[in-house]
Amino acid sequence: xxxxxxxxxxxxxxxxxxxxxxxxxxxxxxxxxxxxxxxxxxxxxxxxxxxxxxxxxxxxxxxxxxxxxxxxxxxxxxxxxxxxxxxxxxxxxxxxxxxxxxxxxxxxxxxxxxxxxxxxxxxxxxxxxxxxxxxx
Length: 136
What we know:
The chain is an all-alpha fold. It is built from seven helices and no strands. Helices cover 63% and strands 0% of the residues. Helix 1 (5-20) crosses helix 3. The model is unreliable at 124-136 (pLDDT under 50).
């Protein structure tokens, strides 16, 4: 029986999730209670996981919605990138010494906030309430 495009995509996304979790094929198969070859067949799109297997995949951290649809509705912001941005902001404050320029800091924070809003909207998440900020 020939695999459908949908089965192949599901298998590719399942493999992506396994790799994202840092698991080998054998470890993933063991964690969800199937044989290694069955796990391989899921990733190749030769077999489709049952509802029971999908529930076990979810229990080990697989984003099952992504595997099934290709969408990541619960995707979070990149925390590492945010931490780097905060560090840059702190470095800016230190470089400006004891008297940071209010206008410069406000503009930098607005730019940062807008980039977060932009990323948030690209993810298709619910809107974040934003108030208008005026700079002196």
